[in-house]
Design a protein that fits this description.
Blueprint: E1 2-4, E2 7-8, H1 21-28, E3 37-38, E4 61-64, H2 76-88, E5 93-98, E6 119-124, H3 128-138, E7 145-150, E8 166-172, E9 182-183, H4 184-196, E10 200-205, E11 209-212, E12 215-218, H5 224-230
Parallel strand pairs: 1-4, 4-5, 5-6, 6-7, 7-8, 8-10, 9-11
Antiparallel strand pairs: 2-3, 11-12
Length: about 240
């Protein structure tokens, strides 16, 4: 696994961004998150060691732009260079998540056609309104590998009609002292939708406030992922 953040910074875009970890972390460091800038890791996928070998070894999953949004407007002038590097590194599998899926067609390279085999796109939704809007767009896009990311999930949602051609659905709660609660029944509902449609499912993390069997639990941030794994409800 490798991380590639060619730029950093983002803008809050919808309700799911309310307690964004990027903004929280930047605030502590007194960094203006709304200022989008290229990073010194811009060329990371094609950086080489003295022997001429790539620093990022072949076969890895590369998590792309997890400190921003790959489709953010301010990066339009830089994105084509990223696509060129992605095409050069066909031996890597790139994945990025976006809340800006409506910009997808204007952000792809000319030779995209029906998608690059080494690119997975995750469309992020947090409530029914965003699920209906974003996934209706996502359904029609020419992408070889599609995931749906329901994180942070802030209400019960139905996504079943959008599960055609989806490889994985991820569900997770919100992490913040003011976080909106995650109800385990919502998680199980999405799992059942995936089960009926033979789609892989991952419960990635509980929320800071986690409701199960009508009782609300307050969890430490460091325990959110481990508690989700203990549920043992993932589907592959």
């Amino acid at each position: 696994m490798a991380m590639w953040n060619p730029w950093r910074g983002c803008h809050r875009y919808s309700e799911g961004c309310k307690y964004c970890y990027i903004h929280k972390g930047d605030s502590k460091r007194k960094v203006d998150t709304n200022h989008i800038v290229k990073t010194d890791k811009f060329y990371a996928p094609i950086d080489k060691i003295k022997k001429g070998e790539y620093k990022i070894k072949s076969g890895q999953i590369v998590y792309l732009c997890f400190s921003s949004d790959f489709l953010i407007e301010e990066a339009d002038a830089w994105r084509q260079q990223c696509w060129t590097m992605i095409k050069e590194r066909l031996d890597l599998n790139f994945i990025f998540l976006t809340k800006r899926i409506e910009r997808f067609m204007q952000c792809i390279p000319e030779d995209w056609n029906d998608g690059y085999e080494n690119v997975t796109v995750g469309c992020t939704v947090e409530n029914q309104e965003m699920a209906d809007y974003r996934l209706s767009i996502f359904d029609k896009l020419p992408i070889k590998h599609k995931n749906i990311i329901c994180q942070p999930l802030i209400e019960n949602i139905t996504i079943e009609k959008h599960l055609n051609d989806i490889e994985l659905v991820v569900v997770g709660g919100e992490s913040d002292k003011n976080a909106r609660p995650l109800d385990y029944d919502w998680v199980l509902s999405i799992r059942e939708q995936c089960l009926r449609n033979h789609v892989s499912f991952e419960f990635r993390q509980c929320g800071t406030y986690f409701i199960k069997d009508g009782r609300t639990y307050t969890l430490r941030t460091k325990d959110l992922c481990s508690q989700a794994r203990k549920a043992n409800i993932n589907l592959s």
